[in-house]
Specification:
By secondary structure, the protein is of the alpha/beta class. It is built from six helices and 13 strands. The chain has a five-stranded mixed β-sheet, with helices on one face.
Length: 297
């Protein structure tokens, strides 16, 4: 096959087709626990985090809810993956054998947000959120300024972590910030590409500008204790007891239990079994949705 402009256009069409097929073959998980926030600058500031909205009976003048200002921002990062097709494969008309790797590139683009979001969740024990504390911590300050009390969203232990999340609100516990979506580009012009000229190889790559961050810590609870009925009930009770700085209940109600493969069996037994081993009914049957994530172990 001659390496003509028409031939390169046909190859790009094939590459794009397989890339899209690979990308569409994966159903992302991150959308269930993170909110997509479109970004228009190099970084976005989330100083408004810290107070949940609430309506009150209108008596007298409006009361302006002046939020605490928090210094929390998410800076966009660039990510890429690049593959090459040697010119010999095009001349010999054998480039078709390389198409599966472009399908895999599309699959990688689809899974990348999941990898980022769940890596952030797992790192919540050591990465700070809007209030300056680790996202999962034992001393989040809650209350009027000067009268704060420490509140925990963490249960200590020595096992693999599991997480309870309230994902019912418009702003979920985590944030996926997207400045530029994943796109496929080609470098195939020998007249303008040094790589094509020097290496005799045609390049195809995907890139994006995205990042992840934390939302409200009150909507998340982490435990490294055993995933059993007592610890699960304690985590649920702790989340439902959360109050605002003004002392009102936040209405937190966990909806998703996120576990890694090592806690899969325990999660299924705790949540998806109608009766216990002793024959008694299971009060936590379908209390939350179980999400098993391979990136957490």
């Amino acid at each position: 096959m001659d390496i003509s402009a028409n031939a390169l256009t046909a190859i790009y069409t094939a590459v794009k087709l397989h890339f899209n097929q690979g990308r569409e073959s994966y159903r992302p998980l991150w959308e269930e626990i993170a909110t997509l926030v479109p970004s228009t600058t190099a970084q976005e500031n989330y100083a408004w985090l810290g107070e949940f909205s609430r309506l009150r009976e209108w008596i007298g003048d409006r009361q302006i809810n002046r939020m605490k200002a928090h210094d929390y921002s998410i800076k966009n990062k660039k990510f890429e993956a690049t593959e090459g097709i040697p010119a010999d494969y095009i001349e010999d008309d054998t480039y078709g054998v390389l198409m599966p790797k472009f399908a895999d590139m599309g699959y990688a683009a689809a899974t990348h947000p999941d990898e980022m979001v769940f890596a952030l969740l797992a790192n919540g024990f050591a990465q700070k959120c809007y209030d300056g504390q680790f996202f999962f911590d034992t001393d989040h300050p809650v209350g009027p300024e000067g009268q704060e009390q420490s509140v925990a969203n963490l249960q200590e232990g020595a096992g693999k972590p599991w997480f309870l999340l309230d994902t019912r609100r418009p702003l979920k516990p985590l944030i996926f910030q997207r400045r530029r979506d994943y796109r496929l580009l080609a470098k195939t012009d020998a007249g303008t590409s040094d790589h094509v000229f020097m290496a005799d190889e045609y390049l195809y790559g995907v890139d994006a500008r995205v990042n992840v961050g934390f939302g409200f810590w009150q909507q998340a609870f982490a435990s490294k204790a055993a995933l059993d009925e007592a610890n699960f009930d304690g985590a649920v009770a702790g989340m439902m007891a959360h109050k605002s700085d003004k002392g009102r209940p936040l209405g937190i109600n966990p909806s998703v239990l996120v576990v890694g493969p090592s806690n899969r069996a325990a999660a299924k037994a705790l949540i998806e079994t109608q009766t216990k081993a002793n024959g008694a009914s299971n009060p936590n049957y379908q209390a939350v949705k179980v999400m098993v994530v391979p990136w957490l172990d």
